[in-house]
Amino acid sequence: xxxxxxxxxxxLELPPVPTPAGSYVPATRTGNLIFTAGQLPFRDGELHRTxxxxxxxxxxxxxxxxxxxALNAVAAAAERAGGLENLRDVVKVxxxxxxxxxxxGQPDVMNGASELLGQLFGExxxxxxxxxxVAELPLDAPVEVEVVFGLDPPG
Length: 155
Known about the structure:
- The protein is an alpha+beta fold.
- α2 packs across α3 (106-121).
- The chain has one domain (35-151): CATH 3.30.1330.40.
- It has a five-stranded mixed β-sheet, covered by helices on one side. A two-stranded antiparallel sheet has the order 3-4.
- Helices cover 30% and strands 26% of the residues.
């Protein structure tokens, strides 16, 4: 089953890719790879949640934020690739979690992103991953996610 069908079955749609707020692009391609810029948990143009994980943001809320970040990354990559059907696999996910001192569940938070990518891409969604705790993220977002996608070779 293709990612577009899985997306529909999950009741999801790819969100519009927002215009960058700075001097960067939402996704860039080199060879057979697409790298996304860091994606924040925007839903309908609004930041879904703010605050630090381990204080204002609970684990399940942070996982939902990571899931939104991943969905936004898929949208940015699909736009750059010329369509969702052109994304072959997920290579690497890097997640940044705005954490309170003592919170060490960053991998649990990032499961929200990884699980969504697995649901969309199946076996091709298995990826390498880093989950990093940080003091602050832009706009006081609790999570930011970057994804590297593979494309089929031209030809």
